[in-house]
Amino acid sequence: MQVQRVSRRSPSREFVEIGPEVAERMPLEREPSAATVASYVLTRGASRAWEAINNQLSEGQGAVFWVGGSPGTGKTHF
């Protein structure tokens, strides 16, 4: 059985065009703005977790907490 190697030019190269430079970029901030914080909504579960974490931290003895859950449940968002 003979195998022939055929080289082709990639057709996708013809359709890729670099657009104009982005005129404005959002600046990175050290702290969120008041409007961002005011619009943030915690889910019921996140509210309970936030309350439990704050209760442990306010006891003065220190505490360890772990945010766990299945993929896609909002751990990073929390």
What does this structure look like?
With 78 residues, the chain is mainly α. The protein has helices spanning 34-39, 44-58.
Rg for CA atoms? 25 Å
How many E-type strands? 0
Distance between the first and last residues' Cα: 59 Å
- Residue share in helix: 25-40%
Write the H/E string, N to C. Answer: HH
The 3D shape can be described as elongated
Question: Which ranges are low-confidence, i.e. pLDDT below 50, for 5 or more consecutive residues?
Answer: none
Total of helices = 2
The amount of beta strand, in percent, is under 5%
Major β-sheet, in short? none
Structural class: mainly alpha
Mean pLDDT: 78
Topology, element by element:
Blueprint (H helix, E strand, L loop, with lengths): L33 H6 L4 H15 L20
List keywords for this structure.
78 residues
Task: Sum this structure up briefly.
The protein is mainly alpha-helical. Helices cover 27% and strands 0% of the residues. The chain has two helices and no strands.
